[in-house]
Amino acid sequence: MALIDFKCKECGHEFFEIVNSNDKVLCPKCKSENVERIYKGKFYGKGSCSGGCSTCSGCH
Ligand SMILES: [Zn+2]
Fold this sequence. Notes:
mainly beta; Rubrerythrin, domain 2; three-stranded antiparallel beta sheet; binds zinc ion; Regulatory_FmdB_Zinc_ribbon
């Protein structure tokens, strides 16, 4: 489980969701599935974690 930032490619809305590995994420605004993940790093700022470990639960 990880807290992931998303941006909707349809309407540009940015949001975050707590997702499991293969959950489908919909834009809460326009219900589009056309969303992309954003790794801002602000939730993963500890230690050596670079923010690429969305499946890691031990470093933040
Ligand atoms: Zn949208």
